[in-house]
Amino acid sequence: MSDAELIERARGGDRAAFGDLVERYQQTVFRTVLIVLRSREDAEEVAQDTFVSAFRRLDGFRGDASFKTWLLSIAWNRALDRRRRIGQWMRRFVNRDNETGPEPASGQPTHEQALIAEESRAEVRRLVRSLPARYREPLLLSVSGDHTFEEIAALLRIPVGTAKWRAMEARRLLRRKLSRTQPDRASEEAVTLGREP
To answer: What would the pLDDT profile of 34-83 be if each residue is shown by its tens digit?
Structure first.
């Protein structure tokens, strides 16, 4: 069933139809707000709030943009509001669970190799964090794989060409910074290590 059909059914009081929309976009909304908040707990809460807000505002959806774009705009704005309130997202950008698992099985990296790889990822995340928001946000949205540049442009309220250029410029800046700190890691592959789920 298309988004439009589900929306019409949901407007008519069919909660299951809205549940189908939630199921369809739940992961995309979560990953989008996680880019802004860098905290799974905060992202889960904001994603849930996004769907509650969307359900309440469903009658206001005019269809000027796709439902996905409209929904992600709500999610993005709610995430930005949360980030402003908590004021800690810069610290959370590099936080990760520090759980240590079992020893790697045969064929997996050694403990030392895993530590070196983690240090490299942490350095890339630090460099991504150091980018100005105008470059960082288009880059993270584009590497998430959830958004087209048209959607990124709509979320950030900038032209599509500007969104593409800023993501490309972010990659160029990261490669330059990486070449100073880790000359052997200054590649496109190293830039993608800045991603977090």
So the answer is: 888 888 888 999 999 999 999 999 999 988 889 999 999 999 989 888 87
| Helices assigned H by DSSP within 57-159 | 67-86, 89-92, 111-130, 133-143, 149-156
What would the pLDDT profile of 83-107 be if each residue is shown by its tens digit?
777 553 334 333 433 344 444 445 5
Domains observed in the chain:
3-89 (1.10.1740.10), 111-192 (1.10.10.10)
Q: Which two tokens stand for residue 93?
A: 């950008």
Whether the CA torsion 48, 53, 59, 64 is positive or negative: it is negative
Please give the Cα distance from 70 to 54 (Å, whole number): 9
CB under 8 A, 24+ apart: contacts of 9-12: 10/55, 10/58, 11/58, 11/59
Question: Is residue 2 exposed (0-12), middle (13-18) or buried (19+ Cβ within 10 Å)?
Answer: exposed
Distance CA 148, CA 102 (A): 38
